[in-house]
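As a warm-up, study this chain.
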Amino acid sequence: MDWCRYRFRSVWRLAAPPAAVYGVLERAEEYPLWWPQVREVVPLDERTGTARFRSLLPYDLVVTAEARRRDPDAGVLEVGMSGDLDGWARWTLTSEGAGTRALYEQEVELRSPLMRALAVPGRPFFRANHALMMRGGRRGLAAHLRT
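Now compare it with the structure written out below.
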């Protein structure tokens, strides 16, 4: 097992149509407005930006994200990431009744020297930190979509 590699999968059920959810998720520079753990997103150009994340652990992760796929018809948004995390993340949105099923998938490798050094003892904390971040994002997005 490579202790520095992670695969995450989360499903969010949202009371808004896929097009509305997609419209919010494609504007990554606005994530800090509704996702508390996304502290900063700085666009570099139309396809690339930097993002800074911090959840429960007292440590910021900084990544450069580059859009790989933007397909509103398929409901797919995918980015490649480099920096403290190296890999990819993808949203896949589908209709579910009157709302949306938002599937978030992520495969990353820790690149931060500190996180790599703490990979074995820190793994349960890193996973819990990610789960809390995703919970905060789901709650924030649901509230944002209601406004």
